[in-house]
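Meet the record:
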Amino acid sequence: MIEICLWAIGLILVFEGLVYVLAPSLIEDMLRALRELPPEARRMIGALMMVLGLLLVWGAKALGA
């Protein structure tokens, strides 16, 4: 179980790092846009991302990963 958690965290870091390497100015634009959103909208975006992540994990487990 711990190896799966480490694998998942490693993948997250790889994808997060790719964004900073390939498009650092995009990060600045996204942060600026996020600052303009009200906290409720940011909370909703976070909740939707969490649900999407859970669905992806559930789907991968259902497929035998």
